[in-house]
Structure formats: C-alpha cells, structure tokens
Amino acid sequence: MVDPISILIGLSALNLLASAALALWIRRELEESVEELDRTLALAIKATMDQVLDGGLGGFEAVNPIQAAFAQLIQAYASNQVTTVEMQQVARNDDGTFQKDLKEFE
Could you tell me the residue ranges of all domains in the chain? Predict the structure, then answer.
C-alpha cells in the first residue's frame, strides 16, 4: 500500500515542477512579445521620421523670422545669457520736456 504522505509529497513535487515550467513559458512569451513590440515601434518611428524628413506630412509652415527672434530672446533670458545695458536718466524741464545739453551733441 502507498503511504498518503508519499502521495502528497509526490503531488507537491509535480506541482512545483509544473509551476516552474509555466514560469519559464511565461518568461519566454513575455520576452518575445517585448521584442516584437520593440521591432514594431522602431519601424513606426522610422516611417514617421522618413515622412517628416521627406516633407510627406506636409502642412508645416516655414519658421517666421520674428517668432524665431522672440524665441531666441526668451531662451537667452531663461538661461541668463542676456547682458544688461546701463540706463541713463535724462533730466526734464519743469514743463516735462527733455533738457538738451550741448555736450550730448559733441
């Protein structure tokens, strides 16, 4: 007669073996799926970049030079690359007009 403990140990060993085989199968399937996703994404990115570089997407407007200048100004301010200019205060007369010194025009 077979001991019930031996049957329980045997079934546990088979269960462990089946679980290990299932884990290996899941790992292999997951690796293959990730590789397939990587290939698909690489092809999609390459096709999109080819369309952009060839002008196939169309509808892109040329860069406006004034907008580009403002963008550079904002970038310069953001990175503190703008040099400041010293301000000179010019005196005014009582009626609000600017005073003119002859030294300014020399």
Answer: 4-99
